């Protein structure tokens, strides 16, 4: 499973950013800002961004933590990471990037104030293991922040499902040449436990003293925040 996921991301890596921008109408930037705000990261904080892909959330964190802070962006797909260092350099931001599997990080315990993952946790083989692993590398009292799609309901939800099932694969396929990837991404988003169901995964991880779900745009996405025991 993880090999197929890695190959899929590798095939869309060079077109990922432009496709993201078009398909989200730029809204992903606002969502990332919310994730950074809710993480409690401040000047000087040490942050790990898992499944960082092309590094957008890592860069948003670096803007927050400043030159005294440290941000490490990790992903298990080297091709997704490829453009990240140049993006950071262009923005004048110093971020470290490493190839790492979010389910088995080769980083010491209690290293970071915050660990984050955006639109990545639904792609890992075992989200509970990933939540444990992220908590392991965060100091007690620090936070784990997850940004992930939800399943909005009502008339807006119907519109969103139509958009995900038809518009996303068509445009994503056109821009990347991999229509299947843009069928997989909304399909996994529709099936992934959101809201209270994700909070119970956080409970199963047994690593958080508090956890909360913050809906964005009528539940189109959520920011989940866990305080590490
Ligand atoms: C939809 S992209 C999101 C990228 C980025 N976080 C963002 O918000 O744009 C999902 C990313 O998760 C990565 N990924 C999936 N499973 C992973 C794992 N087990 N360990 C590390 N990265 C993983 C993929 O390589 C891909 O870059």
Automatic annotation (TrEMBL):
Protein name (record): Demethylmenaquinone methyltransferase
Protein EC: 2.1.1.163
Binding site for S-adenosyl-L-methionine: 54, 75, 101-102, 118
Spans traversing the lipid bilayer: none
Family to which the UniProt record says this protein belongs: Belongs to the class I-like SAM-binding methyltransferase superfamily. MenG/UbiE family.
EC main group: transferase
Function: Methyltransferase required for the conversion of demethylmenaquinol (DMKH2) to menaquinol (MKH2).
